[in-house]
Amino acid sequence: MKRIIAIVVLAMLTVITPLYAASAAKNLAYVDKNGQSYISVGVLKTYDGVKVAYAAAEKKLHITREDTALTLYLGSRNAYVNGKKVQSKAIPFSENGSTYVPLQFVSQHLGLKLSWGHNRSTLKITDGNVAHTLPVLSGTFISSQTKPVTSTRKTFKVGSRSFSAQVVTVSLLHPKVELDVVLAGNKAGKVEDLRSIAKRSKAVVAINGTFFDAYTSGAYKAPYGYLVSKGNILHKASGDNRTIFTYDSNSLAAMIPGLDFKSVYDAGHMEGALQAGPRLLTDGKVTLDVKKEGFKDPKILTGGGARSALGITKDHKLIMLATGGATIPQLAEIMRQAGAYQAMNLDGGASSGLYYNGSYLTTPGRQISNAIVVKYK
């Protein structure tokens, strides 16, 4: 008798089970080729009081919050709101281990407010006093089998000059991709070879990071700017306005003014950050304002040298680029031609280095203070 009861209970658990996204999946909003928008149930479950269960035999999703009960079916527009049958404009489906439900339908009935970002590349979802911003994936889903990182050497023509650059492109929404900011020797003030930082971090890609006191005779070579890893501040800045590259747990990347650091960090979504600058591109246009960012070197815009830069595309790719002999304005144009929509300068000169898949694409001329790395989960 006990055995029969155990079998019945086990069967019930397999029929009605909590629905979780695959562990490697990132929380995002999705817009299909017909303009229909969706959200993963993994996102829904992050909001207070929202519960999701799945009946596999019927392909039925049951979503509840307080006195609201929604029932949807994978592959069908049929839905129920508190037992009343309705028709959804979009059809729930599963992809890459996650289940997606119609965004407008669930947000309306669960009381979630939506705000689309510029170019509809981000979606802000507000629930009471809590707000989360998600990356938006449009068109085709990224398969876990596709290559997350590509590397190429490109030539860019700026005015009468041509520049050869090493370009690594990272698909930030790829389920295997993870970003990190790493200190040399795991401690502020230390220096280390970029290759050593990459190998120690088990990184596929690494590029040198922020400026530091490379020419001091002392053992402590202070980094200049905010450094954040895994949500923890590794190094605090003096409060200047130099541009900061940031990203959250979904690898949603952005570039913010240095003076905005505290408010963005206090919001609790900053997974990593690195401050350098100046800003090169804003929304696809060259925007150099070195005075506003606090740069005082009179040759900041005219001096040429080895350069490293980061760029973010409209479709959530990260461009990591290294070139030689360019001025800051020339670097800005190079990043624009490379496809960046937002871009910023990193430390350059002898610090400039780019590592990919076990070897240098650009070899630094000295040990460095910190790096941005790309790892696979």
What does this entry look like structurally?
By secondary structure, the protein is mainly beta. The chain has two domains: 16-138, Copper amine oxidase-like, N-terminal domain (Copper Amine Oxidase, Chain A, domain 1, 2-Layer Sandwich); 149-376, no CATH class. The chain contains seven helices and 30 strands. The protein has helices spanning 2-15, 41-44, 103-110, 194-200, 261-266, 290-293, 328-337; strands at 16-18, 29-31, 37-40, 51-55, 60-65, 68-73, 78-81, 84-87, 93-95, 98-102, 113-116, 122-127, 130-138, 149-158, 161-171, 177-183, 205-208, 227-229, 232-235, 244-247, 253-256, 272-275, 279-282, 285-286, 305-312, 317-326, 342-345, 354-356, 359-362, 370-376. A seven-stranded mixed β-sheet has the order 9-10-3-2-13-12-11. A seven-stranded antiparallel β-sheet has the order 14-15-26-25-27-23-24, covered by helices on one side. It is elongated.
User: Which structural class fits the helix and strand makeup?
Assistant: mainly beta
Say how many strands there are: 30
Strand order of the largest sheet: 9-10-3-2-13-12-11
**Could you tell me the mean pLDDT?**
92
**Main sheet characteristics:** 7 strands, mixed
CA(first)-CA(last) distance = 46 Å
> What is the C-alpha radius of gyration, as a whole number of Å?
24 Å
What's the topology here?
Elements: H1 2-15, E1 16-18, E2 29-31, E3 37-40, H2 41-44, E4 51-55, E5 60-65, E6 68-73, E7 78-81, E8 84-87, E9 93-95, E10 98-102, H3 103-110, E11 113-116, E12 122-127, E13 130-138, E14 149-158, E15 161-171, E16 177-183, H4 194-200, E17 205-208, E18 227-229, E19 232-235, E20 244-247, E21 253-256, H5 261-266, E22 272-275, E23 279-282, E24 285-286, H6 290-293, E25 305-312, E26 317-326, H7 328-337, E27 342-345, E28 354-356, E29 359-362, E30 370-376
Parallel strand pairs: 2-13
Antiparallel strand pairs: 1-4, 2-3, 3-10, 4-5, 5-6, 6-7, 7-8, 9-10, 11-12, 12-13, 14-15, 15-26, 16-30, 17-28, 17-30, 18-19, 18-22, 20-21, 20-22, 23-24, 23-27, 25-26, 25-27, 28-29
